[in-house]
Design goal:
The complex is a heterodimer. Chain A contains 16 helices and no strands. By secondary structure, chain A is an all-alpha fold. Chain A has a single domain, classed as Cytochrome c oxidase-like, subunit I domain (Cytochrome C Oxidase, Chain A, Up-down Bundle), CATH 1.20.210.10. In chain B, the strands form 2 sheets. Chain B has a 5-stranded mixed beta sheet, covered by helices on one side. In chain B, strands 2-4-8-6 form a 4-stranded antiparallel beta sheet, with no helix packed on it. Chain B is an alpha+beta fold. The termini of chain B are far apart. The longest helix of chain B has 38 residues. Chain B has 2 helices and 9 strands. Chains A and B meet through helix 5, helix 6 and helix 7 of A and helix 1, strand 9 and helix 2 of B.
Chain lengths: 516, 183
């Protein structure tokens, strides 16, 4: 029974171990994070000054598109799946995921999907250039020939996400240790449980919309072609019916991570556990009825604008409950500020700023001013970078000692945090101002009046990028050696994952623990 | 036992996945069309209207404006032969559009209508329209294209002006493919 990992490369190729697969997901997503980051730095280098200096407008459009696609589908989503693979079985006292072979498959198709998608950069006509939202007819009638590769890459990553989600739901429903009732599950498990249902519901819609594109391009149908009786606006409705739940897929697991970290470093139990669960479920439910707030300017009846505006604002209520709970957890706690806590506190503050700019965008009449400006770019980067990226980083620092048995370098971790924090705010805060004064998204050149803010943004972006190299270095150094971590790692952390040895043995909970 | 339970959950989730895919491809587009027809969203007008002998409301007049737009690089000359007319609600009128194919190629075009304001779309009935069929024109040929319509007597009192816009698309490639497929 007690056998370790296989030797050599086939260990990774054939593995069905949740920890191996989790590590591969995390490394893959970090590689994609760097690749998407390079695309972002090309964009910021071009925008450092007005005028065209470094890249042609055609390549600039390919960079904005690939940056979005790689970050959303390659960096954020696989990172959360990786954390789920590592932590969910250990948090609920299960020996492994419910469907370990499918787990292997869902990981190993991802590198092929992204190899296919990035290979379009070297094709005739270039990579997809229509933005990560790939609105028809830009992505059908006017698309470069490589769009077909893009469509199949999306199919493959969709299949991967769906398999991952099925696995997570099956694990949570059937593999919990005796006594681990639903309302005793850690919040990370709860938020992933709900996220997995969102994935099951909307990834097929994404597959559907790209399939319709494929048929319009190659088989003469007219789903999105007005000349044949179709409607390009239909594309936007179907896309955002997928797209809005998708943005919550990228944030709900983050809520779970910070809900695990903040109580540990505030040395108080999480305030309002059950309200956190209900708030997460409400946010997930509301995500299905707000999609048209992405398309206020497309020409909707007034009643539609109002309905989507009020529904969108309603989301602020459960989100407010969450922020209140985190703040209340910290209130009068014996707080210390280790690296994971720094990232988590920054998450609460900066994600709230992103939430507020989201409320501004939700006001339909005001949105006519903000639509497709840098204000939108500022908003969604404020929710995604300090939201998804900071929480993943916090999670890695928090659980890394458990994974590899060594403590990371705290000084380097804190330096990483402050560089990333300053870099992030330098990059994205000025975008609010540029956007409010009218700078449009997705342009390689701009009016002189936006020059100062853009220069600040570009400097910040390179600082943020440099900070991530420090993160990579710190993680590698920790895996290779360093001060040994105790089994508990932190002071009285809550959860079954801290009851196993550090580093976590290859097989944990072969006998289920008793939870009371 | 647990394995059996896992397979049950897996099949149920896979079924949901397939159902959502079918929903996106086969259900959402028709729902959207029905929704647009009911609300007049996007100014979509209905198919050919079977004229029923309705009374004519002589007490009011509605201005109907005609627009013609060429989609992207469509090279035809395309214009309404009168820019606007006044009609009584319930009265059937005929107007004409003019089109020329100035190129050296035989081409096929398709006109797609849109009505503004949206709330008037469902009251704008076309009994005959060149937009119901595609328009083939030989190289250098010109044509006058007829449109007969009735503004329904039920149109809201607040609607004084209706704008009917046609966008002309070049569908030569698609039409050729279709005729090859039919032969």
């Amino acid at each position: 029974m007690a056998h370790g990992p296989a030797k050599g490369f086939t260990r990774w190729l054939y593995t069905t171990n949740h920890k191996d697969i989790g590590s591969m997901y995390l490394w893959f997503s970090f590689a994609m994070f760097l690749l998407g980051g390079v695309f972002a730095l090309v964009i910021r280098a071009e925008l450092f000054e007005p005028g065209l200096q470094i890249v042609e407008p055609e390549l600039f459009n390919q960079m904005t598109t690939m940056h979005g696609l790689v970050m959303v589908f390659g960096a954020v989503m696989p990172a959360f799946v990786g954390l789920a693979n590592w932590m969910i079985p250990m948090m609920i006292g299960a020996p492994d995921m419910a469907l370990p072979r499918m787990n292997n498959w869902s990981f190993w198709i991802l590198p092929f999907a992204f190899a296919m998608m990035t290979s379009t950069l070297f094709m005739e006509g270039g990579a997809p250039n229509f933005g990560w939202t790939f609105y028809a007819p830009l992505s059908t009638t006017y698309a470069p020939p490589s769009v077909t590769f893009f469509i199949f890459a999306v199919h493959i990553m969709g299949a991967s996400s769906i398999m991952g989600a099925i696995n997570i739901i099956a694990t949570i429903m059937n593999m919990r240790a005796p006594g681990m009732t639903y309302m005793k599950m850690p919040l990370f498990v709860w938020t992933w449980f709900i996220t997995a249902y969102l994935l099951i519901a909307v990834m097929p819609v994404l597959a559907g919309v790209v399939t319709m594109m494929l048929f319009d391009i190659h088989f003469g149908t007219s789903f999105f072609d007005a000349a044949g009786g179709g409607d390009p606006v239909l594309f936007q409705h179907v896309f955002w019916f997928f797209g809005h739940p998708e943005v919550y897929i990228m944030i709900l697991p983050a809520f779970g991570i910070v809900s695990a970290i903040i109580p540990t470093f505030a040395r108080k139990p999480l305030f309002g556990y059950s309200s956190m669960v209900y708030a997460t479920a409400s946010i997930a439910f509301l995500s299905f009825v707000v999609w048209a707030h992405h398309m206020f300017t497309v020409g909707m009846p007034l009643a539609g604008e109002l309905a989507f505006m009020y529904m969108t604002m309603l989301i602020a209520v459960p989100t407010g409950v969450k922020v209140f709970n985190w703040v209340t957890t910290m209130f009068r706690g014996s707080m210390t500020f280790e690296t994971p806590m720094l990232f988590s506190v920054a998450f609460v503050i900066l994600f709230t700023i992103g939430g507020f700019s989201g409320l501004m965008l939700a006001i339909a009449p005001a949105d006519f001013q903000y639509h497709d400006t840098y204000f939108v770019v500022a908003h969604f980067h404020y929710v995604l970078v300090p939201g998804a990226i900071f929480s993943i980083t916090a999670g890695v620092y928090y659980w890394l000692p458990k994974w590899c048995g060594n403590m990371y370098n705290e000084t380097m971790g804190k330096t990483h945090f402050w560089l990333a924090f300053i870099g992030l705010n330098l990059t994205f805060f000025p975008m609010h101002f540029a956007g409010l004064s009218g700078m449009p998204r997705r342009i390689p050149d701009y009016n002189m009046m936006f020059a100062d803010w853009n220069m600040v943004s570009s400097v910040g972006a390179f600082l943020f990028g440099a900070a991530q190299i420090m993160f990579l270095f710190n993680v590698i150094a920790t895996i290779r050696g360093g001060q040994k971590a105790t089994d508990e790692v932190w002071e009285n952390p809550e959860g079954l994952e801290w009851t196993v040895a550090s580093p976590a043995p290859y097989h944990t909970f072969s006998k289920p623990p008793q939870v009371d | 036992m647990a394995a059996k339970e896992t397979m049950r959950v897996t099949w149920r989730l896979l079924f949901t996945v397939v159902a959502m895919f079918i929903f996106a491809v086969f259900i959402m587009p028709p729902i959207y069309d029905v929704f647009c027809e009911i609300t007049g969203l996007n100014g979509k007008t209905g198919d050919q209207y079977q004229a029923i002998s309705a009374e004519v409301d002589k007490s009011r007049k509605v201005k109907v404006q005609f627009l013609a737009t060429n989609n992207e690089s469509m090279p035809w000359q395309f214009k309404p032969m009168q820019s606007e007319i006044y009609v009584h609600p319930g009265e059937e009128v005929e107007v004409k559009y003019f089109a020329t194919n100035p190129t050296a190629e035989n081409m096929v075009a398709q006109a797609v209508p849109s009505v503004i304001p949206f709330k008037a779309a469902e009251y704008f009935h076309k009994t005959e329209c060149f937009c119901f069929n595609n328009q083939p024109l030989k190289a250098g040929e010109s044509t006058e294209m007829a449109l007969r319509f009735i503004v329904d007597i039920g149109v809201a009192k607040s609607v004084n002006t209706i704008t009917l816009s046609y966008t002309l698309f070049d569908i030569t490639a698609a039409a050729t493919q279709q005729s090859i497929a039919q032969n």
